[in-house]
């Protein structure tokens, strides 16, 4: 294997970060949640900086053995990207051992052209945790998630940095797997934040075009490095987008993708598989990057809450200011828009309820200071101005509230003092913001749509985004689809059919308000099966499991014992005829309507 191109240049770099060797102090700036998640990934809970050094040193040594040039600079890049949280690496790469796949959601094989059985749709609506599989499964090896937010700067995609990151981690996965072994996969994550940094709306054609351009660059870079390494990378990417149809901030990414895909590369016969570039739920990697499980999700909120030694601190997400700057707004308009969304964080000059209004009721400076200090941890003034914060003696002597009835007033003290809902709402918006840029001074509705968050972006735009990436990436797109329990069964069925037509490899419907009984009972049934043995994925087999999960606990346990016996009794289809089947049940008993097996 030969690969002589340098993956990085020595010295600091705005996108990759400084050479990370010895930068232990830099890790102290990580959020606590990210630090905890990182430590859980490394073996033995080792010091994160030391673990990163050990991992990249090990990869560097393997790269030298495999004939990779410039291995030291390449390993330094890997260190910098890990410690600057541009990437998150799962535990399989740290430990060198394959990570067992999660038991749930339960996979359902729907790769044929038959309609999705109605009972399966009804089960999803009821909250059953299912993964509806329409295409090829994802890679089973180590996974590395690339945070696309880190590759947008000054309103444009950082083309060189994104290409270099994809190349560096494609090589890392190949080196970690070893010659002739199938490597893992790279996951594109943080797409919603990247689009906001570009000032583009998630649910707009421009947003989808920019997302496709970034994905095309990553795919072309993956393909190019794989061919250089003599790996089976598949056909050259076909870039169908035209630059004039892509927003300015992503045009350079598209042009570079087309240039990479157009180069003819005479490679020897492939010696192994190339790493895969895919979209899939992040799992344990999400917390490291500060994201949710869905890598394609829009930004969850314009406000970022952080816990510091001095208490909670609320501030705008970095994508907000970057996106406003990308839209070329003046600094004063950006500041006003941020205050509209995030709030002022104080009752000073608040309409409706300010310090003067509180003093009119005899609330002194010390108690006002207490109220101000509590604002950072609240979202509503009703939870701040309470009898418990003002003190029972004050409420009795100054406000005339009987201490025995304090609990009856609770968070309704402001109304008790005579403030109506309109005044409370006005003060709330001043202190805590509106949570949106819609209605912000100086911003048109068309401008504000670029900053819509997850709660205002419904399932249809999310599926459209997943379909757009599925048309670009060679690897599978496995798209979560969150919905409320009020979602109509017909609507969910349409979404499933649309995902199938669009080439999405798997759809993972997630009912946000579903009770957990079905999932808990399924885990109980699956836990009783022998290690490494799982039930089948045909719709009839899954319906049988779901029917058992809906029964009483004794019935569920009885079903698990019967299922175990059938799985162990089925002949093994591999080389060892005496081994039990590990591919699931096939040819299971015919099911009666409702999913109950015939005796």
Give an account of the 3D structure:
The protein is an alpha/beta fold. The chain contains 26 helices and 12 strands. It has a 4-stranded mixed β-sheet. A 4-stranded mixed β-sheet has the order 2-3-12-11. Helix 3 runs antiparallel to helix 4 (71-83), helix 24 crosses helix 25 (539-549) and helix 24 (517-527) packs parallel to helix 26 (553-569). The longest helix is centred in the middle third of the chain and has 24 residues, at 205-228. It is globular and about 85 Å long. 43% of the residues are buried.
Keywords:
599 residues, alpha/beta, four-stranded mixed β-sheet, 26 helices, globular, disordered N terminus, disordered C terminus
Offer a concise description of the structure.
With 599 residues, this protein is an alpha/beta fold. It has 26 helices and twelve strands.
Strand order of the largest sheet: 1-4-7-8
- β-strand number: 12
- Gyration radius (Cα, Å) is 27 Å
Q: Count the helices. How many? A: 26
Overall structural class, as computed from helix and strand content, comes to alpha/beta
Parts with pLDDT < 50 across at least 5 consecutive residues: 1-26, 571-599
| Envelope shape | globular
Q: Major sheet, described briefly? A: 4 strands, mixed
Approximate helicity band: 40-55%
Quaternary organization: single chain
> What percentage of amino acids are in beta strands?
5-15%
Overall pLDDT metric = 83
Measured between the Cα atoms of the first and last residue, the distance is: 58 Å
